[in-house]
Amino acid sequence: MPAPLRDIARYLDETLRTADIPDYPNALNGVQAENDGVIVKVAAAVDAREQTIHGAIAEGANLLLVHHGLFWGGMLPLRGAQRARVRALLDGDLAVYASHLPLDAHPELGNNALLARELGLVPSAGFGRFKGMDIGVMGESIIPTRVLSARAAEFAAKWGGSSRTSAIADERTTLRWAIVTGGGGTTDTIRDAHAAGIDTLIVGEGAHHTAIDADELGVVVIYAGHYATETPGVRALAERVGTVFGIPWTFVHVPTGL
Prior knowledge:
Layout: E1 3-4, H1 5-16, E2 30-33, E3 38-39, E4 42-47, H2 50-58, E5 63-68, H3 80-91, E6 95-98, H4 101-105, H5 111-118, E7 125-130, E8 133-144, H6 145-158, E9 164-165, E10 173-180, H7 187-195, E11 200-203, H8 208-217, E12 220-223, H9 226-229, H10 231-245, E13 249-251
Parallel strand pairs: 4-5, 4-13, 5-6, 10-11, 11-12
Antiparallel strand pairs: 1-3, 2-6, 7-8, 8-10, 9-12
Helix pairs in contact: 2-3, 5-10, 7-8
């Protein structure tokens, strides 16, 4: 049955606590583009890019749920690639709902909690604070670090990417771990991990120097791919919307390889 966009948006806002979770200014969490208001199928994608917009429309969807919304680059003139993206959106009468950190942080549907599950880990606390809120997760385990690294590599490959581990010794055991998906591999995050007694930090991506920072602090960092580590949340979100509102959903897979 078709469902009103306003009802789906209200449900998502409440479920994700969109108004309560701080984020970067250009995230613009919530409905970023409206359509005629009656949703017949939902598509999920990591990024609101021209290719995922066309992909959603080709699948018969008229609501696109994304992690990275339309406005990451800030205010841009409607010409070139930006014009093409907006034109595709309007021509296809496609609504867009974006959720960045609220989706990352959700304890059930969030990227961090779901990545932990994919890797066979069970979170016991939050980690990775942003403006007073824990966005990531942490926990305890007894698992050979090489096994965890191999699981991350398998997961990344499934979503069109690759995983790299900063430094690893076969005899190491992961006892305390933390996850911050996407661009979580910053120097500050690595220092926070060290301060919290984390021996293995799993992130999406990080700059070259972060591997050096981690090595000098004795923290293993697994870079499992920005795109790959942010696929679980939007897929789970679309599935939830489909279940609650009784409408079909699909995932538009456009990997960046990063």
